[in-house]
């Protein structure tokens, strides 16, 4: 085990367990659990560790990583020792930083899957951590491995994507889209070697680019494939497979799968422990992490979980208005935050639902960076020097429509926009 690299602590660092990141509410320790698989016993141990050494809360990241918040410089050594004993630490921070692999969340449990990708994911992670030439990859460079089953990942912020095909091979896509022309194909045993060759090609060709998608646009797929020794690209993944990204009572074949969300993806230690108990007593003994910030409990039915859901204010209704708002931690939890965000977002959750039938209707951001929702929303509120700016139909960093509103004014403005959105075409015509 390596000691945590506290000499690397600085704001904005892509964090890990060995390289925590400073935030407004303490250090953030990110755990990359292979395949997003969280055994119930480990979840109980982590919940206890987060209570003892952190602020008693977790985030589930958009890359299906579990993040312990509120750790201090004093508690970090004890937390690190505990995590090491639990076997969730890498040997070094450089290897940990490139071990960015997202997998189909029910890998190995989904009867509709074309193959069990768990060994593929483990082998890819091993290659990334042990091949030091790959440690030069940018911090956000990521991989996805999909099993072709009933729980597709949809579009993702990754750089290389391996999608299982009916012939038992993998189609390789550059960037985050779940469809489009492919870089090439490889069999399951070759995924680590092929991923390494493509990553090396990226490093050789990248120029100013830090992600594969812009490089693919600039250089073309053929150049990248040839540099990686894959030959001329041929074919496409033609059928888009959007993610089944809402909570609720799902199924994998005959087996129930409860998908649970938490408000803003923030989970208390007590909620994680309670869900771990359910997974152990009623399910398969595992929780699965998803990049759409739901936890999956294979084998657990809604009826088994009703008391736990109510006790911890969790979300299992796909129409819950809280799913329509995105908000980062904002001030004071994030030191870059220029105003509070989450309470305001919750106050406007019903309006957010009116602003978008599905997806995010309202995004409240603590600053123009827009961490909680990089895309556009019908309405975005951006805190600035304690007041709020309004962006209509854009992203947090886009041009504002109204500026310098106080809280009451921004609430009134959003309510008015939501009321307008809720009017029928006939009502609009009569006005
Ligand atoms: S968007 Fe939010 S979380 Fe991201 S830096 Fe700004 S205030 Fe912090």
Description:
The protein has 13 helices and 22 strands. The protein has 431 residues and is an alpha+beta fold. The chain folds into four domains: 6-88, Alpha-Beta Plaits; 114-147 and 155-237, no CATH class; 248-311; 321-426, Sulfite Reductase Hemoprotein, domain 1. A five-stranded antiparallel β-sheet has the order 1-2-5-4-15. Strands 3-16-17-14-13 form a five-stranded antiparallel β-sheet. The model is unreliable at 1-12 (pLDDT under 50). The structure holds iron/sulfur cluster. Iron/sulfur cluster is lined by residues 328-330, 334, 336-337, 365-367, 369-371.
Topology summary:
Blueprint: E1 21-23, E2 26-31, E3 37-39, H1 40-53, E4 57-60, E5 66-71, H2 76-86, H3 93-98, E6 101-103, H4 118-130, E7 143-146, E8 160-164, E9 169-174, E10 180-181, E11 184-187, H5 191-205, H6 212-219, H7 221-227, E12 236-237, E13 248-252, E14 255-261, E15 266-268, H8 269-282, E16 286-289, E17 294-298, H9 302-311, E18 325-327, H10 342-347, H11 349-355, E19 362-365, E20 377-384, E21 387-394, E22 402-405, H12 407-422, H13 425-430
Parallel strand pairs: 6-7, 7-8, 18-19, 19-20
Antiparallel strand pairs: 1-2, 2-5, 3-16, 4-5, 4-15, 8-9, 9-11, 10-12, 13-14, 14-17, 16-17, 20-21, 21-22
Helix pairs in contact: 1-2, 1-8, 4-5, 8-9, 11-12
The structure holds iron/sulfur cluster.
Residues 328-330, 334, 336-337, 365-367, 369-371 line the site of iron/sulfur cluster (SF4).
